[in-house]
TrEMBL record:
Alphabetized InterPro entries for the sequence: ABC2_TM, ABC2_TM_bact-type, ABC_2_transport
Name of this protein: Transport permease protein
Compartments, record wording: Cell inner membrane; Cell membrane
Cross-referenced PANTHER family: INNER MEMBRANE TRANSPORT PERMEASE, TRANSPORT PERMEASE PROTEIN
Cell inner membrane among keywords: yes
């Protein structure tokens, strides 16, 4: 065997190795789900309980008490944003902790370390799907008739959030091995995630209150773009919104401009996260 075919055991092919080890990824995802719901009575039903309670709190606090439910189909508007932010929060948060949580495996055997953050994102997808089905059922109940472009926008939004959460997860998972304060930083970021995107309020309030300059930078947030795309796909095609005198107020050029911008920014963050992760992964076993 030539020396050119040998590779250092602490080097990997990055996310490409995850594709080559799909069977191992499947085992890790299954293990994560079993560990999370071990000795649990409700099991996977907890993926309904948390967003359900969160929805009720926001609906009564903001919709009923503050009167925001005067907006047509406010339930759909709010829930379509909540499930997307919850997916991002779980994927990013669990990916950040994934390498440290699997420290015993990292120290004992060699395997692509990217498997752990990717598995965390897959587990978040498993929890996202039941919530998404509930959203679809509610949309049909409210007379949902989407167009092809709106559905493609929703697919693009999901891809955008997946790349963003994985990229940030890889970046902070590597940092968390060296500096455990990273978990606290991520917790602060996730605490602000719901309020930095138009989940519970209308996007134009930011523009009208803080001006066009601030709004431009606010709009560069991929989560903002993704939530707006979900609103365009699931809220604006409902009957009450279509028939409202002012219709659905959505940002200009949402599909033609902001969708490509959000995808590019998310891809750049994914590439940055992978680069930092690969640079630091050789120190993981030693630091853990």
């Amino acid at each position: 065997m030539s020396s050119e075919s040998l590779a250092a055991p602490d080097k990997s092919g990055g996310l490409l190795d995850v594709l080559r080890r799909r069977d191992l990824l499947r085992l890790i995802v299954r293990k994560e789900l079993k560990v999370r719901y071990r000795s649990s009575v409700l099991g996977l039903l907890w993926s309904y309980v948390r967003p359900g309670v969160q929805f009720l709190v926001f609906y009564f606090a903001l919709g009923v008490f503050l009167g925001l439910n005067k907006q047509p189909n406010f339930v759909i508007y709010m829930f379509s944003g909540i499930i997307l932010v919850n997916f991002f929060s779980e994927a990013f948060g669990q990916a950040t902790r994934s390498v440290v949580a699997n420290g015993a495996l990292v120290k004992k055997i060699y395997l692509p370390r990217e498997l752990f953050p990717v598995a965390s994102v897959w587990v978040a997808i498993v929890h996202f799907l039941p919530q998404f089905l509930i959203l679809l059922a509610a949309c049909f109940f409210f007379g949902w008739t989407p167009g092809f472009g709106q559905l493609m926008g929703a697919v693009g939004a999901f891809v955008m959030v997946t790349m963003l959460s994985l990229g940030l997860g890889l970046l902070f998972a590597a940092a968390n091995v060296l500096f455990r304060d990273s978990e606290n930083i991520v917790d602060l970021m996730l605490m602000m995630a719901t309020w930095l995107s138009p989940v519970l309020y209308a996007w134009y309030l930011v523009r009208d209150t803080l001006g066009e300059t601030f709004y431009f930078f606010y709009q560069l947030n991929p989560m903002t773009i993704a939530v707006e795309l979900f609103h365009a796909a699931f809220w604006s095609p409902t009957a009450a919104v279509r028939n409202a005198p002012e219709g659905a107020r959505l940002p200009d050029n949402l599909l033609s401009l902001w969708l490509p911008v959000g995808l590019v920014i998310s891809l750049l963050i994914l590439m940055l996260g992978q680069s930092v992760f690969r640079r630091l992964e050789g120190r993981f076993a030693q630091e853990l």
